[in-house]
Structure formats: C-alpha cells, structure tokens
Design a protein that fits this description.
By secondary structure, this protein is an alpha+beta fold. The chain contains 4 helices and 7 strands. The chain has helices at about 1-50, 60-70, 105-115, 140-150, and strands spanning about 75-80, 90, 95-100, 115-120, 125, 130, 135-140. A 5-stranded antiparallel beta sheet has the order 1-2-3-7-6, covered by helices on one side. Strands 4-5 form a two-stranded antiparallel sheet.
Length: about 150
C-alpha cells in the first residue's frame, strides 16, 4: 500500500510540475508583453506631444476664426502641405491656408522671395497674405483677406 501511495504521489508530482513551469513561462511572457505595452504607450504620449505643436486649438486658430466670421464655407479639403514646405494646410473653395513653422527654411524663403515653388512641379505660388505662421494662397475675397490679416491668433 505504501508503494502504491508513493507511486501515486510521484505520478501526481510529475504531472503537476510541467504546469508550474508553464505558468512561470506564461508569467514571464505576460510581464514582457506588459513592458512592451508600457513602452508603446510612452512612445504614443511622446508622439502626441510632438504632434500637438502642429495642431491648433479650436476657437483660437485661423480656420475657426474665419468660419466664425462666415468667410469659409463648403467642404474642407486637407492639402498636401509638404508640397509648399508647410506643416499643415487646408482649403475651402479656391482659398488655401497653410500653417508654417516660422523657423523653417521654407518659411524664411517664402518671406524673402514672396513666393513658394510647388515641389515636383516647379510652379511658383505667390501668397495673397501672410499673417505670422499662416499663409493664404489661391483666390479669396477682399473681406476674407482683410479678416485673415486681422487675425490676432493663438
């Protein structure tokens, strides 16, 4: 009877041991995945902080200002701002508004030359108005240009 008990106990211990090992391996993998998730969350926060530099706050940006004055209407179209060296850009109708990094070479050349060359096309675009980091291109009414220039901003 004692031999049977020892044999049964040995069998139970041998079958239970791999379970504990597997649990430890899974715990290690979980810890590793949690660490990766934490790293990715940190990276996302850092990227959001960098992105916020280029985002505008509702009600204080040029677009909101002009919409509130009923000078922009219709569908908003996101523009390929990199084609003119800007950070971001949009248009309503034929009026295009771009936001530049005022420290960039693109912006400095725009101010110096009073034009920007459309990348890959070699076409020069002359701004209708420049107000700090915002630049207005295309076609716009005198009222829109005046309001654009009056904007005090962020």
């Amino acid at each position: 009877m004692k031999k049977r008990f020892v044999a049964l106990l040995t069998a139970v211990l041998l079958t239970a041991a791999p379970v504990y090992v597997q649990a430890d391996e899974k715990d290690g993998k979980i810890v590793e995945l949690e660490a990766k998730v934490n790293d990715l969350e940190k990276e996302i926060r850092e990227l959001k902080e960098k992105l916020s530099k280029y985002e505008t706050k509702s009600g204080t940006d040029m677009e909101s200002y002009l919409i509130e004055k009923n000078l922009l209407s219709g569908d908003r179209v996101e523009m390929a701002s990199d084609m003119v060296g800007a950070v971001s850009g949009f248009k309503y109708g034929d009026a295009e508004i771009y936001k530049y990094d005022m420290e960039s070479e693109s912006y400095k050349n725009l101010i110096k030359e009073n034009k920007v060359t459309l990348k890959d096309f070699g076409i020069d675009l002359v701004p209708l108005a420049i107000n700090k980091e915002y630049v207005l291109f295309g076609e716009a009414s005198e009222e829109l240009i005046a309001a654009f220039n009056e904007f005090k901003g962020e």
